Amino acid sequence: MGFCPRHCQKGVVFCSSIFLILIGLILVFSWQSICDGITKKQLSLENEYTKQFQFWKETPIPMFLEIHLFNWTNAADFKEGKAWTTKPQFTELGPYTFREIHTRTNIKFNDNNTVSFNTIRTWHFVPEKTRGSLDDNVTTLNTIAMTVGNMVKHKNYLLRRGVSFLLEEKRIPFTVTKTVREFLFDGYNDTLLNILHKIDLKGIKIPYDKFGWFYSRNGSSTYDGNYTMYTGADDIQKLGIVTRWNQSPRVPDYSGYCGLVNGTTGELWYPLKESKSISMFLSDTCSSLSLEANGSYSAFGLGGNLYSQTDRIFDNGTKYPDMDCFSPGVHLPSGVRNVSECKFGAPAFISMPHFYMADPSYRNAVEGMHPDPSKHSFYLALEPNTGLPLKVDANLQVSLYLENISGISMFEHVTPTMMPVLWFRQQASITENLADLAKTLVILPEVGTFTGYGILGIGSLLLFIGSFISVRNGWEGTEDEEPLTQNNC
Fold first, then answer.
1. What b/e readout covers 328-353, taking b as 16+ CB neighbours within 10 angstroms?
2. Is 489 among the domain residues?
3. 55 and 65 fall within a common domain
């Protein structure tokens, strides 16, 4: 510093140290707020220009739907109107795998920081990931006949006898054998369904011209209903939380809190941090499912929290009294949820596949159930700072509850049994490109904070060195060189 006089040297050192200390303090105390603003801007659905909106409008993560059907192998041993002398036996077929794409439509931003929308789900068959063929034959209960029976089981006796006469007169079968494609997306013509559309039976309305478990869903913009959820524009912790389904904050199928629309759709999440539980509202169940924190998960160097089901997920008040409102009508052992009102009167119940985590009585009533936690669990792995899904493995089973119905010959002598129909697995995993993008948002707060501490340390060290040199009078140069006109920095 021979070219700079002593007062100049002091000025440079002390001004630089103070400047660095101020910058360091600003970064240390303000960087988190800056990062929160960046995160909010990128993660919210404030408008159609955010990154989150682009990802949400058409989900970029590859998704697959695997469907397994249960073939009733000894159905011929069960005669209509006869008492049962053996257990129903089932063999699992599949998986029949489909690529699944979600696209949002009818998007409307509301004034209260919510957005309303419909989801179009499109499925494309993936033969290379399928075991078997869509032309495989499957035998199962006659779902339409069971639906009619379930609709009239509490009606007056004369109506039930009339239904029984109709079933007998038209020779409606107790079981049905169709191909996989007919049972799933194509649907099949049903004699009883055609008759019901021609006559007007009070209280019996089935809004389909064919029957298939996924019939009319492929490419439909209305089947899953209309959702309204928070955009996170005002509070990122509300991001994705559903407030209304089909314009209502409740569903009519369940009483109390069980009928409340709450949780996310399962695809868009707020920053979870250390949340112990999460909830999702699913149109397939017309209700919410809750998962509990259960360990950790990592993908492409990105860590996440793992959430999975417990025995509470489909309890109906047997183990957890507050879950009793999920059991409208018939009260059964724990492990299944009645969704009949959600499925147009069909006696349908949702459970974990192979009755995993359900009361053993369900498995013991039939042959062919082999619950396996490694195959039949329901879990999500979510990055806690961004809510980004790292892994989704959602597994659910659909069963039909076969029960005695007085006055209808077809069902008068059956043994009440939960009859498995199908189970499905929905899988999705984050891609490396999305993981790299998420890493930027995850490490940004630490990078800024550590940089701030580093700059603060350098400034403090420079201040210490300048003070030490001043005490030792170790500055070089003379004081009579060009005077310092400003005694500040």
1. beeebebbbbbbbbbbebbbbbbbbb
2. no
3. no
SS3 call for 442: helix
- In this prediction, residue 198 carries a pLDDT of 76
DSSP 142-157: -HHHHHHHHHHTTS-H
* Residue 477 belongs to domain spanning: 1-60+439-484
Structure tokens at 216: 């009319």
H/E stretch holding 120 reads strand 114-125
Helix then strand then coil, % of the chain, to nearest 5: 35, 25, 40
**Are 426 and 462 in a shared domain?**
no
Measure the CA–CA gap between 393 and 423, rounded to whole angstroms. Answer: 13
Which pTM does this prediction carry? 0.84
Query: pLDDT, tens digit, for every residue of 432-488?
Result: 877 877 676 665 555 555 565 566 567 566 666 656 666 666 556 555 444 444 445
Q: How far apart are CA 315 and CA 323, in angstroms?
A: 6
Strand partners, 92: 70
pLDDT digits (tens, 9 = 90+) for 409-425: 999 889 999 999 999 99
Residues 6+ apart with CB under 8 A from 433: none
Q: Can you tell me which residue has the tokens 């309204």?
A: 228
pLDDT at 137: 98
Same domain, 191 and 318: yes
Residue type, 278: I
Q: Give the separation between CA 67 and CA 78, rounded to whole angstroms.
A: 26
Both 48 and 90 in one domain: the answer is: no
Domain match, 257 and 394 both? yes
Co-location of 425 and 446 in the same domain: no
> How many domains does one find in the chain?
2
Residue 72 falls within a domain, yes or no?
Answer: yes
Question: Does residue 450 lie within any of the structural domains?
Answer: yes
Residues 345 and 461 in one domain: no
In angstroms, the CA 354 to CA 163 distance is 33
